[in-house]
């Protein structure tokens, strides 16, 4: 999409409600993230991803044991990946959901153990990252690769366009923190905190803003 962005931190409970269906859960999460991120004038994008196997929602593992257990279950199986993305401007809330299928090859106990030792599974739904080391386990996919990664690019662009945000015209930068929000601006001579730039790869949600004034008095500013 050619975007640079600022990542800010928001705290969202990701507990699934009793009896909540996977589609409903992932949509609710994306909406809650979008709304929570809307702190100043602009548009917030919230997204969330879950893995579903045998109608059971599989989120991020909270321990090595859980990661091992999840990978063992997914090995040799085809599972569903659901990613929802929502856009909110303080008034209007729009959402989309993307469904993809992933088949993971048969995995040995040693492969699972070695992968867990990398630390990669622990912030990933389903305990693997298709865009990282976990990509070597993928036998086939059907659907949206970017949706499996965590942000469906096509649907995100469509949502941005519906709020009159044109990615090719956006000037923005970003910095990395523990959670994921992105700050965008359409002003041609905007100022941003000068932080490390990363490529647009994976982020659960971002904050798009039309006003650079928030950054104009900060140190280490840069024009874009």
Short description:
Helix content is 23%, strand content 23%.
Provide an overview of this structure:
- The protein has a domain at 22-150: Maf protein.
- Helices cover 23% and strands 23% of the residues.
- Strands 1, 2, 3, 4, 5 and 7 form a 6-stranded antiparallel sheet that branches.
- α2 packs across α3 (109-117).
- The protein is built from 5 helices and 8 strands.
- The protein has helices at 22-37, 64-74, 109-117, 145-149, 153-162, and strands spanning 43-53, 56-58, 78-88, 93-104, 138-142, 191-193, 205-208, 221-223.
- The chain has 224 residues and is of the alpha+beta class.
- Residues 170-224 have low confidence and may be disordered.
Topology (SSEs and partners):
Elements: H1 22-37, E1 43-53, E2 56-58, H2 64-74, E3 78-88, E4 93-104, H3 109-117, E5 138-142, H4 145-149, H5 153-162, E6 191-193, E7 205-208, E8 221-223
Antiparallel strand pairs: 1-2, 1-3, 1-7, 3-4, 4-5, 6-8
Helix pairs in contact: 2-3
């Amino acid at each position: 999409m050619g975007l640079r962005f600022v990542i800010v931190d928001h705290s969202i409970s990701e507990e699934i409600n009793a009896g909540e269906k996977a589609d409903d859960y992932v949509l609710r999460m994306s909406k809650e993230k979008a709304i929570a991120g809307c702190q100043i004038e602009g548009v917030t994008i919230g997204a969330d991803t879950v893995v579903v196997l045998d109608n059971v929602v599989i989120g991020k593992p909270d321990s090595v044991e859980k990661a091992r257990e999840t990978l063992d279950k997914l090995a040799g199986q085809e599972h569903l990946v659901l990613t929802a993305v929502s856009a909110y401007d303080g008034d209007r809330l729009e959402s989309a959901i993307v469904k993809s299928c992933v088949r993971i090859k048969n995995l040995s106990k040693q492969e699972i153990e070695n992968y867990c030792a990398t630390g990669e599974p622990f912030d990933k739904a389903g305990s693997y990252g298709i865009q990282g080391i976990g990509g070597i386990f993928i036998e086939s996919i059907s659907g949206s690769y970017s949706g499996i990664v965590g942000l469906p690019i096509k649907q995100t662009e469509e949502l941005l366009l519906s709020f009159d945000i044109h990615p090719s015209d956006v000037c923005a930068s970003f910095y990395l923190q523990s959670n994921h929000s992105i700050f965008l601006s359409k002003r041609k001579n905007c100022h941003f905190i000068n932080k490390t730039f990363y490529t647009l790869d994976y982020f659960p949600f971002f904050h798009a803003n039309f006003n650079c004034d928030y950054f104009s008095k900060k140190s280490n500013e840069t024009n874009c």
